[in-house]
């Protein structure tokens, strides 16, 4: 199990370009394909990993490593911690290796037309991956928590009103004021606890 976990997270670390947000669809596919997290569990882990210090992929790797090994060996806390450490190291190793191996080459040849063309083609791909993650989170946040079924006259269910107001207010504060994102995050947590 350790080898399988390490392989999956090394693959995620190696094949993802564009940072943590671009990683979300790939991490989700791997977690759900292997049955390590359900769709809702993945979204919950994603939310937790965004409010805890550190990159999303590292936080997710740590959680999944601990959870999978703890489920496999329920009476061994030490093995679960080792699983978390194994996955965390596995997801970080490809980036560490690539940066150390290619950084000198990149610094010498970053103005080369071929390298510029590669990054030109990568930009829309990364944008698409980030948009996919953002839309999935938005759908889960605004439609996933609705407790009552929508009226039959609407073919598409209406979003949860309270969640929509909180999300809209957080967006407006972040986009159009100088309010600290930390305060917006804390306000969102408090609002969610009080109203949702």
Describe this protein's structure:
The protein is an all-alpha fold. The protein is built from eight helices and no strands. It has helices at residues 2-15, 20-33, 39-51, 56-72, 77-109, 113-143, 161-176, 181-195. Helix 1 (2-15) runs antiparallel to helix 4 and helix 2 (20-33) packs parallel to helix 4. The longest helix has 33 residues, at 77-109. It is globular, with a radius of gyration of 20 Å. It starts with a helix and ends with a helix.
Write the layout of secondary structure elements.
Elements (H helix, E strand, L loop, with lengths): L1 H14 L4 H14 L5 H13 L4 H17 L4 H33 L3 H31 L17 H16 L4 H15 L1
Give a quick rundown of the structure:
By secondary structure, the protein is an all-alpha fold. It has helices spanning about 1-15, 20-35, 40-50, 55-70, 75-110, 115-145, 160-175, 180-195. Helix content is about 80%, strand content about 0%.
Counted by DSSP, the helix tally is 8
Gyration radius from CA atoms, angstroms: 20 Å
| Spans of at least 5 consecutive residues with low confidence | 145-149
Helix and strand element order:
HHHHHHHH
Instruction: Please state roughly what percent of the residues sit in beta strands, choosing from under 5%, 5-15%, 15-25%, 25-35%, 35-45% or over 45%.
Output: under 5%
Mean pLDDT: 82
Give the termini distance in whole angstroms: 38 Å
